[in-house]
Amino acid sequence: MRIISLCLLVHSIMLGFTKLYCQTPSFATDIAPIFYNKCVSCHYNGGIAPFALTDYTTSYTHRYNIQHAVQTGRMPPWPPDTTYSRMVGERILTATERQKIIDWVNAGAPSGNLALQPPPPTFTTPYQLPGTPDLVVKIPPITSSATTTDQYVCVSVPSGLTQDRMIKAYEIVPGNPSIVHHAIVTGDTTNSFPPGMYDNCFTTAQDVGIGGYAPGQGPTIFPSVYPAKLGILLPANTNIVFQLHFPAGSIGQVDSTQIRFFFYPINEPDVRQIYIIPLLQNWSLNIPPNTIQTYTNTCPSTGLFTNCQLPINISVFGAFPHSHLICTRLRNFAVNPFNPNDTIPLIRINRWDFHWQGFYTFKKLIKVPAGYKWYSYHTYDNTAANPNNPNNPPQTVLAGENTTDEMLFDSFMLLMYQSGDENINIDSLMTVSIKKFYSQNKEKSKIVIYPNPFSEWFYLKVQNSDEKILYVRITDISGKIIFEKTDDYPFIFLPNMEKGLYFAEVITSEGIYSVKIIKN
After folding, report:
1. N- to C-terminal Cα separation, the chain
2. Which of the four, 136, 357, 476, 479, has the lowest number of CB atoms within 10 Å?
3. Does any domain span residue 2?
4. Can you tell me the distance from the alpha carbon of 453 to that of 450, in angstroms, rounded to the nearest whole number?
5. Which uninterrupted H or E stretch holds 328?
C-alpha cells in the first residue's frame, strides 16, 4: 500500500474499514519554523538572497520558486556530499521538512492561523557573537564598480597588535551583506602587502590563513576544551588582508566589511595551533573549448609537501576547496601509496557552484598518516551545455585569478597529529565550546514557552534569537523522563501527555534552564 505524505492512515479493525486522515501543512505552524531555522540567515530583508522568507505574504508570492529549489536540491545550499564525509553545521533539509514544503505548495500554500506563527528571527544587529571583541579590524568604505562583470577588491589594514595572540573565535561581518558575495581574510606578517587597496591580492604572500565569509555562514568558534583546545596564531604587527567579491550589477553600492576577533588569554596553556594551507593546487590548467576535462593537483618537488606527501602525521580539521565558473564537481582524498584500497575521503562536491563556497569543518578530526599521497580532482565543463560558462561560444580557459579564468586551489585547516586525534568528536566539543563562549560573553537569557498551559503543543524559544537550543528534556514531578530532543526545532507536540505539572530542562549554547509547564 502506498502511504500518502503527511497523512495518517488509521485502521479501525473494530469497525472493519479504513479511514484516511490527511493533515495539510500550513505556513504558521509547519513551514515558518523550517524557514526560520534553515533559510532566513540569507533570506531576510537586506540579506544576500533576492527575497525574504520572514513573512507569509512574501513566502506565498515565491512559493513556486521555493518548491522548485527544494525539489531540485538547490536550496538550502550545502555543496558537500554528506554520503562522502560529514561536516559540522550541515545546512540540509530532512526528508520530512522537504516533503512538508512540497506538500504545502501543492495544497495552495495555506497560511493557517498566523496567530500561532512563531516570531521570525530579527537582524537588528549585524553581529552574532556576543560581548566585546578583543580586536576589530575594519576596512574603509569602498564603492563597488561591478557593472556587467564581478569585481574583486583587496584591502590591507594594519592590525595594531603589539604581541602575538591566539584566535579563539571570530566573525566576518559584511558592511553591506546584499553585495558581499564572499570574503576571504588572511594575515600578512612580512608587510609584503602594505596597508591600502588593491585590484587583486590573490598571489601576494599572505602567510597566515584566517577564514572566510559566505552568505549563510555564521561565525567561527574553535573548540576550546580538552581534548581539543584549538586556535590560530595571529602574530604581532600583522596586516589583515580582505579579499572581497562584489557581484555584477552592484556598481555604486558601498561596503565596509570588518572582522571581530576574540582571543585566548595571553599565555593560555595547551592551545594547539591550526594552520590553514592551500595544499592542493594546479596552475597549469588549459581547458580547450567544447571539452570536458578533469585535472588533478600538481606535486612540487621541493619543500615539505614533496611528491604530494607530508613527512609527518596530520590531523585535518576542515576543508575549503576552490574553483571558478566552469568547474562542475571535485573531490579531495588521501591514499596509502602501498595500498590503493586504503583511501581516506576528505570532501566531495558533486555539483560545484561558484556562488556557494565555504569553509567546512569535519565532525571528527581526520588522521592522514605520514607518506600518504594527497589528491584533488576537479572536472571542468567548457561546453555550451554548461549554463555557468561565461563564454558564448566557449573559449580556451586557463588557470588564473579572474572569475572567467579557472582554479584548482584547495585549502585545509590542519593540526600536527597527536595520539587519539581521530577519536575526537569535534561536533560535540564545539557544542560545549559554544556554550562556554556564550556564557562568558553575555548575560543569561530567558526561556519562553507559549502557550503555557498547553493542550497539544507548545512553542519553545530563547529570548535572544541568536542563541541555539541544544537539548530539551521534559520530566514529570517524580523525575521520570517524558520527552527528549536534541535539535533546535521550536515546536513540541505532545497530544497524549497526561494533564498535570511538568518541568522542561533546556540546554542552550549559553546555559541550562528549568521551566515549569502545565498540560491542561
Report:
1. 37
2. 479
3. no
4. 8
5. strand 327-336
Query: What distance in Å separates the CA atoms of residue 234 and residue 161, rounded to the nearest whole number?
Result: 9
Q: What is the pLDDT of residue 514?
A: 72
Q: Compute the CA torsion angle 454, 460, 465, 469 (nearest 10 deg).
A: 170
Averaged pLDDT for residues 265-293: 94
- Give the number of other CB atoms < 10 A from CB of residue 6: 17
Give Dmax over CA atoms of the chain in angstroms. Answer: 83
Whether 264 and 224 have beta carbons less than 8 Å apart is answered as yes
Q: What share of the chain is helix, strand, coil (3-state, %, to 5)?
A: 10, 40, 50
In sequence order, the 6+-apart residues with CB closer than 8 A to the CB of 72 are none
Domain that holds residue 486: 443-519
Together in a domain, 40 and 147: no
| Same domain flag for 12 and 144 | no
Look at residue 365 in the predicted model and tell me its pLDDT. 96
pLDDT for residue 33: 87
- Residue 141 sits in the same domain as residue 229: yes
Enumerate the H helices of 180-321 as residue ranges: none
Are 416 and 307 members of one domain?
yes
The Cα 34–Cα 70 span in angstroms is 12
1 found inside a domain: no
| Interatomic CA distance for residues 460 and 476, integer angstroms | 18
- Cβ pair 448, 463 in contact under 8 A: yes
Question: Are 80 and 147 part of one and the same domain?
Answer: no
Count up the domains in the chain and report the number: 4
Joined together, the cell numbers standing for residue 425 give 568528536
Domain presence at residue 300? yes
Q: Which of 178-182, 279-283, 487-491 is least confident?
A: 487-491
* Contact criterion met (CB below 8 Å) for 414 and 275: yes
Q: Is 434 helix (H, G, I), strand (E, B) or coil?
A: helix
Residue ending a domain, choose from 405, 433, 461: 433
Within a domain: 499: yes
Question: Are 260 and 141 part of one and the same domain?
Answer: yes
Three-state secondary-structure class, residue 141: coil
Query: Rounded to whole angstroms, how far apart are CA atoms 172 and 187?
Result: 14
**pTM listed for this prediction:** 0.74
Shared domain check, 226 and 154: yes
pLDDT per position as a tens digit, 483-499? 888 777 778 888 888 88
Single out the residue in 401, 433, 465 at which a domain terminates.
Answer: 433
Size (the chain), residues: 520
% the chain with pLDDT above 70: 90
Q: Beta strands 272-273 and 228-234: pairing type?
A: parallel
Asked if residue 10 has pLDDT above 70, the reply is no
- Locate 85 and state its grid cell: 564525509
Angle between helix 63-72 and helix 95-106 axes, rounded to 10 deg:
150
